[in-house]
Queue: 2 jobs
Job 1
Amino acid sequence: MQVIKYPSREDWATILARPTFDSTSLFDTVQKVLDDVRSHGDNAVKKYTEQFDKVTLDNIEVSKEEIAEAEKLVSTDLKQAIEMARRNIWKFHSEQQHDLPEIQTSPGVYCWQKAIAIQKVGLYVPGGTAPLFSTVLMLGIPAQIAECNEVVLCTPPNKEGKIHPAVLYAAKVAGVHRIFKIGGTQAIAAMAYGTESVPKVYKIFGPGNQYVTAAKQLVSLKDVAIDMPAGPSEVEVIIDETANPAFVAADLLSQAEHGVDSQSILITVSERQVEPVLEQIELQLEQLPRKEFARKALENSKIIVLKTLEEAVEMTNEYAPEHLIISTRYYMGVAANIINAGSVFLGNYTPESAGDYASGTNHTLPTNGYAKAYNGVNLDSYVRKVTFQQITQEGLTNLSNAIILMAENEELMAHSNAVKVRLNEEKPVEERYSSHRR
Ligand SMILES: NC(=O)c1ccc[n+]([C@@H]2O[C@H](COP(=O)([O-])OP(=O)(O)OC[C@H]3O[C@@H](n4cnc5c(N)ncnc54)[C@H](O)[C@@H]3O)[C@@H](O)[C@H]2O)c1
Ligand SMILES: N[C@H](CO)Cc1c[nH]c[nH+]1
Ligand SMILES: [Zn+2]
């Protein structure tokens, strides 16, 4: 991990750059796969599954028998852990439902909103190098709470053409309706355009590698909504002299192990913490089965020494990390000034892995600086708030001058007429006999 001490402000942007790859050829490659699946459906999906996942599939949909079999293969302990996570995720997300009041904006003018679930949603669960069954819960449970009608899930098959049992079990627990053995760009294309087997959806959710993220961005230009760009994982940790180096190292490694393009950033206002943290990283890294991924990701990672916590906050807001851990004496004071981050973890006993699995918050979060403009997945991601209004004859009379004047100044006479034709009419029957009712 590169150590940078007291950098000058002009260098911040360079220091905070994310790992790069050639995105021109990436977008071209991804677009070709999207177009092919759009034109040739299941045949193209199977072709790319052979090419990228190295498996030939006759049937791309997971059968009921496979789901039943998977349930037997998941241990009781793991089922209990999944249940605990499910309960907390359910609790946190179901509290995000709010009553939407009816507002009388002026006499006789009633406006309100109704939250209505997006009817068809597609969930992408990454599976290139790790079976992320926790992501199934993060994406499926809010869809279940929102009552989406059709929930389909795509995830890459392994070389035997199978899906990890825990992914299938979690999908059952989260009420997913149909599961397909498709990964990468071909999965995003199948859900965006529909194929003979895969239904077309209205919105696609979920994280993934650079191919998945690029595919989501391309299909969202014209064809389907997406949650957000949620690419390679990242974490930033802010510490002072009170932080425990072993905890800090573990947190940095926890995101580095996701993949070679992950990034971990440590900002310390105590120079004395640098060596102990580096020692802990070396020590802990050796024990990790995924140490090769983590080691590569650490090449993209930095330890930055700054003078003050004010600077640390400023740098963080510029970087906009997916995850931010604050391990300083007065962490609440530091947190109060954070404006750009996906999910914030406070104090020495709040590791980022708690949010990845079981505290109840969602782990599908914006990466690559998108936290400046997007939030992570939440219940609102699965609903649209449709507005309704009802205006009485008196209400319309009160608004009429303003509407007519504004419409005529925009030179839109038909808009103005739609009000004028209603004025001076006899009071409508329903208003004579009933009061306003929703
Ligand atoms: N931001 C978040 O909320 C969040 C959450 C979980 C995971 N993640 C990230 O998701 C990513 C998961 O990546 P992954 O690779 O393990 O799984 P993945 O499922 O995203 O990607 C695997 C698929 O990539 C495609 N692919 C692989 N090589 C290709 C190539 N050369 N050309 C075209 N397509 C190719 C294949 O079709 C394969 O099925 C990690 O980077 C992890 O950090 C992010
Ligand atoms: N940290 C990932 C989001 O960036 C989510 C995850 C799933 N499993 C473990 N971690
Ligand atoms: Zn993680």
Note: The two ends are 61 Å apart (CA to CA).
Job 2
Amino acid sequence: MPRFAANLSLLFCELPYLDRFAAAARAGFEAVEILFPYDIAARDTRRALIANGLQLVLINAPPPNYTGGMPGFAALPGGEDRFRHDIRRVLRYADELRAGLIHVMAGPAQGAAAQETLVANLQWAADHAPGQRFTIEPLNDTDQPGYFLNDYALAAEVLAAVDRPNVGLQYDAYHAQMIHGDAAGIWDRYGAGAFHVQIGAAPDRSEPGRGPGHGPVDFAALFAAIDASGYAGWVSAEYTPSTRRTEDSLGWLT
Ligand SMILES: O=C(O)C(=O)[C@H](O)CO
Ligand SMILES: [Mg+2]
């Protein structure tokens, strides 16, 4: 079985932010990810990680524009100065929190100029912080209308153009299923070399499971394919629990 991490921006949200760490540890997780930790002093998040023996896998950048705002702007021509400013800021957080991965969000954009901007911004980030690993993740059009990176083939094209060893794919079974209708096939085609994996059922983005209320993805088979591919990173549970308490949604872990 893969090593599973808990996304604390979606899991354990029935608890205040700083209490989610202990709840994740009690549930057996050894690693977590936090999409936007920027409203909280990094030292408080760091303390909660250490107190609960947790590793931080990933944070998102640039901040803090997701909830109600623009989902990133790395592909927006003209936003380069702001991009650099925000990457410098997110690197300070990543450093203090020991976040292994930074997910760079492309934002709403279209066309060749957007693609060139995204590639150039990612190259700048990769060269500016060669010891840091960055990811990009295709997001589906229903959740993120107009988001530039909305397809796995496009992500592969962007990564080939970026051509840096510290920039890689963030595969999310939920988005892969929503975009292409075939989460397993997309893993088989694009999973090799992925930096990070996230999971959630589609279309309801609930806990991994199959059938009524969860959708068609066979997660046991997907986990086996991920293991067979040699992927050694974390597989992060990024879903909205269908149960009131997150721990009651964790049956899929066993
Ligand atoms: O929406 C997702 O699947 C993500 O992983 C993004 O990072 C959301 O911020
Ligand atoms: Mg995701």
Note: The longest strand covers residues 55-61.
